[in-house]
Automatic annotation (TrEMBL):
This is SDR family NAD(P)-dependent oxidoreductase. PANTHER family: DEHYDROGENASE/REDUCTASE SDR FAMILY MEMBER 7B, SHORT CHAIN DEHYDROGENASE. Belongs to the short-chain dehydrogenases/reductases (SDR) family. One of its GO terms (molecular function) is oxidoreductase activity. The keyword Isomerase does not apply. Coiled coil: none annotated. One of its GO terms (cellular component) is membrane. InterPro entries: NAD(P)-bd_dom_sf (IPR036291), Sc_DH/Rdtase_CS (IPR020904), SDR_fam (IPR002347). Keywords: Oxidoreductase.
């Protein structure tokens, strides 16, 4: 199982949940010391894991092809991908957004997940049943002033789920997305800095839903976005 953005709130929670469910987890992120700490935590808990350092912002299609080749060489196949990486620097009017910042948000939140998935499709098709799970965001919540490139990219991501899911409908690869409600992450804190974080559930509350989408039972959400909102406590 490949967890992209394994160092984020939902990414690390998903990695822990996947490892606890018995999956061998490949942790993809850009900060090696933190990846190593998460790896040590999973192994100490009896899980199986590996790390793959990669910065989505600067990665190229060749980097993704090399990654897929290395995963195939070490594991033989790939049963699933969780796309939990996100780029959201904060609320800024589009009029004042630097072009580089807008392009970065589109790339990390939309283009990179598509290109990484594309590179892994031959590997995913080797499994009897595999899944690609994207993390979406509620369009009604983010289609508002100041959400910038993040909002644009997340709208595009829902289109990607529909198109890619339809293209792969007769393959072993299932495509879906989880649209979680508010949770206690740094991203949420940057957007809703006036709220009390204690009112939001921890990302770990949503991790079982990610595992569900990755499992065979997730077929019920094939080609669709699953809106799920949980309460704190």
């Amino acid at each position: 199982m490949l967890v992209v953005g394994a160092l984020g709130g939902l990414g690390s929670a998903s990695a822990r949940a996947c490892a606890a469910a018995g999956a061998e987890v490949v942790l993809l992120g850009r900060r090696v010391p933190k990846l190593n700490r998460l790896y040590d935590e999973l192994v100490a808990a009896g899980g199986r894991a590996a790390i793959y350092p990669l910065d989505l912002e600067g990665a190229t299609p060749a980097d993704y092809a090399d990654m897929a080749e290395r995963i195939e060489g070490e594991f033989g196949r790939l049963d699933g991908i969780v796309h939990a990486a996100a780029n959201f620097p904060g609320l800024t009017p589009l009029e004042l957004t630097e072009p580089e910042a807008f392009a970065r948000a589109i790339h990390v939140n939309l283009t990179a997940p598509m290109l990484l998935t594309q590179a892994c499709l031959p590997l995913l098709k080797k499994a009897r049943d595999s899944a690609v799970v994207f993390v979406s965001d509620a369009p009604a919540r983010i289609a508002r002033a100041h959400w910038g490139g993040y909002a644009v990219a997340k709208h595009g991501l829902q289109g990607l789920v529909a198109v890619l899911g339809d293209e792969l409908v007769n393959s072993p690869v299932r495509v879906s997305a989880l649209e979680p409600g508010p949770m206690r992450t740094s991203l949420r804190g940057r957007a809703y800095f006036g709220e009390n974080p204690a009112s939001w559930p921890e990302p770990s509350a949503y991790a079982p839903a990610v595992v569900h989408l990755l499992s065979a039972d997730g077929a019920e959400h094939r080609g669709r976005v699953w809106p799920l909102e949980l309460r704190a406590g």
